[in-house]
Amino acid sequence: MKWITRERPKIDRLACPWLIRRFIDPQAEIIYVPENEVLRQANVLGATPFDIPGVEFTHYDDQCTFDYFIKKYELKDPALSIIAPIVRGADTDDHTLALQSSGLWAISAGLAYNTKDDKELLEKGMLIYDALYSWATHLHKEKHTQSPTEHLLLQIYKTYISNKGERKTKVPAWTKELKNLIQDHIDTNLNFNLKIASEELDVNPAYLSREFSRYFDNLSFGEYIRKLRIEKAIQLLESSDDTLAEIAYLTGFSDQSHFNRVFKAHTDQTPSEYRKFVRKSKGNTKR
């Protein structure tokens, strides 16, 4: 069977051919052509078009084409249920759907940048999705704890817990690591929470929750994250021309209404009022 789609694939147009060849038709021929040629060439070649508007195999609501293939062919492999939100998040730029989405997008974009021939790009993409499938099938519950740094963090944690009855005069080493983790996630707009933090640090979540405020401005984990998001929002309001909706997204709020509510609770001003005040103040300084 022949399948045809737009040229220069990155996410859906690599993931779907992988799905077709591995689960639907191992001999499938995948054809890439310029976008304005897809439907015409589909008729000429007798190929099924996918991942373009107006055809059966495409996006529906918040679902991407990869999701539709799984639904259409009733594919029940549990690994595909793990892979699907990763692909969807990478393809729709909603990296909150899965932690791995941003990584898949980065690898796919870099692969497309380095590989100019679409057939060669597809073959390389097949290797990536084979690897992702093996991870989802056999390894998705495993943690990477082989590096000296991770072993050291674990050792520090165990030492800290064993001495928890003693008065602590030094800040635990994990606090610096956690600050870096939080900042990384805030900067890349990922959905960071206490569970993720505890897994990445290999620190018990109950312990982390209990001890967090001692080393982070006497704030709970959630309060500290909101504080950093507000600080980033203030920076963007002062230095960028992004819309309020864009700033809400960039700072990890669910929507602009949520952003307005939290921002006002922290500053006694809405984001719009704050931006007007800043711009008015800058105008006055130019006189």
UniProtKB/TrEMBL annotation:
InterPro entries, alphabetized: ChrB_C (IPR018634), Homeodomain-like_sf (IPR009057), HTH_AraC (IPR018060), HTH_AraC-typ_CS (IPR018062), Tscrpt_reg_AraC-type_HTH (IPR020449)
Superkingdom of the organism of origin: Bacteria
Transmembrane segments: none
Lineage, highest ranks first: Bacteria, Pseudomonadati, Bacteroidota, Cytophagia, Cytophagales
PROSITE patterns: HTH_ARAC_FAMILY_1, HTH_ARAC_FAMILY_2
Domain HTH araC/xylS-type: 176-277
Statement: the UniProt record of this protein carries the keyword Secreted: no
GO molecular function terms noted in the UniProt entry: DNA-binding transcription factor activity; sequence-specific DNA binding
Keywords assigned by UniProt, alphabetized: DNA-binding, Transcription, Transcription regulation
Name by which UniProt lists this protein: HTH araC/xylS-type domain-containing protein
Pfam families: ChrB_C, HTH_18
